[in-house]
Design a protein that fits this description.
101 residues; alpha+beta; 2 helices
Amino acid sequence: MKSYDTVTEALKDLKATGYTVDFNIAFDKIICSDNKICLNPHEFEIVEVHRFEGDTNPSDEDVVYAIVSKDGKVKGTMSSAYGMYAETVSTDMLKKLSMHK
């Protein structure tokens, strides 16, 4: 797995390698509002995780996920803060995201 120095670099490179859908967390699922794709935790796999820690500011902590749907038709990325700045998620989603630390 490739290593990246910044979130922007990771997202740009993953997009160039086919991870073109931009996902966001919506409590118990991930969604892409641009093309109305919605995946529940059992419908996707996380194939790469890249963590970024802020040297001096906790709000700079972020994680980038490379995601593939179970049927292989959808590939995308999701960027999310972690720690005290993390979004509220369901128990199932938390388990899914935590498995790939």
